[in-house]
Design goal:
One of its GO terms (cellular component) is cytosol. By secondary structure, this protein is α+β, with helices and mostly antiparallel strands. Helices cover 27% and strands 28% of the residues. The protein has 15 helices and 30 strands.
């Protein structure tokens, strides 16, 4: 492929909103261009990488006998109305009407469509387990698209689905997809972690996320060991060090203490000269329409995902200062759980039970209680895990301290159960002739998002460093002088020999200075660069590995073997 005829609109300009290094490099390298906020064009180089990623996916899906198909993007709203997601999905759902005023959506995912497809086709327990998948453009009306390809209104996704008659069928398919996804991510060269996750709007009873570690990532994952299995911070359960280290002491008499101008946890900890975990904070939330007082150790944040799930609430929100004043008659900085029974429901994190003689707001402005103890001085209406873990908290299974990293979600697999099949009427007859809903699983990979994740993990100060398996081209040949017949002939000879050997080649035959060609070659980052220059007449070329920077001089006759050996490792 001649670069003079190719389309690679490199630029030195970085968009003002390009915070992520992948966003910057993919723009600068001429891989993508923004059409509108959250909607991108995939230019030829990016499209070649996407095709290679999709080829890897197709190969691994074939290995687990999962057929590929393609669903429509425009879906009838009626399917989503049956499942309840039309109303519950939120403002991210693109809704529209056709000229006949029929309600439609742009599909963000296709659980309903696949459940409706197989309804009445696979209707006996003997038909299962079965799987299907597609790679397709999806649509979600993100409020704040950001980080290039990481959070978009339009994106490419693999979504796969499993169908079974028993929990064993579901477990089998889930494990098959789990294994296939790991092989896909391994083959694309990603450093990733698998973590337990929250099912969120998808529903179901179990899910695993695959997270690529990256400084710009929007998720936080907690794990133990080197790339060990962990959990998304939304659901991670930990043991705070104080739960082990806090020494049980005799209960002291609760005492009300004046604390003028002392409001925050750190203020109170400094005032009493105690660790922050001894300050038990009390925060008023609204669970749907009902106020609740959330009580937790002061050195941990409230995990609102856990709180909402624990309360089985449709929504939660922080109470305003005015609402707190109306309910408890006190300012936010002095709220506490003592003497509020009958005024508000108390929900407490379980770890507070391990604290003794701690400190809380006294529900009087400018005062706190010291030497407070659970059960004696207040009783919680509900107790469950509702705090977000801190780095250093212990994993309950291994008793090892958690590490917390920022990461990019690249895949997510769900055990959905019967939520969608019940809503869509997808049933089968079991061995006894009883009608039962099909048990489903859902499996997704952010295909276009993988481009950004790969670039986030593979770059240097000069540009992108593509892994071998997903690089747009295998070899970049650079003609130092396209007016020199020897250089031109040798470059074209190498191009043909490498292509005949099965490698993709981009030949930089442009009328540009060598410095410009080298800089742009580093920026777009193919694994190998062959420079045909002043020693062309002697049949000698220079070959450079982009990742290591290692440079060698080779005879032209040695180049194909060198490339073959490099790509066989």
């Amino acid at each position: 492929m001649k670069q003079s005829l190719y389309f690679i609109p490199t630029t030195k300009e970085i968009p003002n909103d390009a915070e992520a290094i992948s966003h910057q490099l993919l723009i600068r390298g001429g891989f993508i261009r923004q059409e509108i906020g959250g909607v991108f064009m995939y230019l030829p180089l990016a499209y070649r990488s996407l095709q290679r990623i999709e080829k890897i996916i197709e190969e691994e899906m074939d290995k687990i006998s999962c057929p590929e198909m393609l669903m429509p993007v425009i879906l009838p709203a009626s399917l989503w109305q049956k499942s309840g997601r039309y109303e519950n999905y939120g403002p991210e759902l693109f809704k529209l009407q056709d000229r006949a005023k029929r309600d439609l959506i742009l599909g963000p995912t296709h659980e309903e469509s696949f459940a409706d497809l197989i309804r009445g086709i696979w209707n006996s327990y003997k038909d299962f387990p079965k799987t299907l998948y597609q790679i397709q453009t999806k649509f979600r009306d993100e409020l704040r698209p950001r980080f290039g390809l990481l959070r978009n209104k339009e994106f490419i996704m693999l979504d796969g689905y499993s169908f079974g008659a028993t929990d064993s069928d579901l477990d089998y398919s889930y494990d098959q997809f789990d294994s296939a996804f790991r092989k896909i991510f391994d083959r694309t060269g990603l450093n990733y972690i698998s973590v337990v996750a929250d099912n969120g709007a998808m529903g179901g009873r179990e899910s695993t996320e695959f997270q690529a570690v990256a400084a710009i990532g929007e998720d936080d994952v907690a794990y133990v060991g080197e790339n060990g299995v962990g959990a998304n911070i939304e659901v991670a359960v930990g043991i705070p060090p104080f739960q082990i280290e806090e020494q049980k002491e005799d209960r002291k008499e609760m005492e009300k203490v004046a604390t003028p101008d002392v409001k925050t946890v750190s203020d109170v900890a400094n005032f009493f000269k105690v660790p922050a975990y001894k300050i038990v904070k009390s925060i008023v939330y609204f669970s749907d329409d009902q106020p609740v007082l959330v009580v937790a150790p002061g050195d941990h944040e409230i995990n609102e995902n856990k709180l909402q799930n624990g309360l089985s609430a449709k929504s939660i929100r922080l109470a305003t200062p005015e609402e707190v004043k109306d309910i408890l008659g006190v300012s936010i900085g002095s709220v506490g759980p003592v003497d509020v029974k009958g005024k508000i429901k108390i929900v407490m994190d379980l770890t507070v039970n391990y604290l003794h003689n701690f400190y809380v707001g006294a529900n009087t402005d400018g005062f706190h209680y010291q030497n407070v103890n659970c059960d004696r001085d207040f009783v919680a209406d509900e107790q469950f895990d509702l705090i977000q873990i801190n780095e250093g908290d212990l994993d309950p299974k291994s008793n090892q301290p958690y590490k917390i990293e920022q990461s990019i979600e690249i895949g997510h697999i769900f055990k959905l159960g019967t939520f969608y099949s019940e809503g869509l009427g997808a049933t089968f007859l079991d061995q006894d002739g009883n009608e039962k809903p099909i048990i489903m699983g859902s499996y997704g990979i952010g295909v276009s998002r993988l481009l950004s994740a790969i670039v986030e993990q593979n770059n240097d100060q000069n540009g992108i460093i593509w892994p071998k398996t997903v690089t747009p081209f295998d070899v970049h040949i650079i003609e130092i002088n396209n007016k020199d017949d020897e250089i031109v002939k040798l470059s074209e000879k190498l191009e043909k020999e490498l292509e005949s050997a099965g490698y993709s080649v981009l030949l930089d035959d442009r009328k540009a200075r060598p410095g410009v060609k080298f800089a742009e070659s580093d920026l777009i980052g193919f694994p190998l660069r062959v420079v045909v220059g002043k020693k062309a007449q002697d049949g000698i070329v220079e070959i450079k590995e982009r990742r290591t920077g290692q440079v060698e001089e080779l005879k032209v006759s040695e180049v194909v073997d060198f490339v073959r050996d490099y790509y066989s490792k």
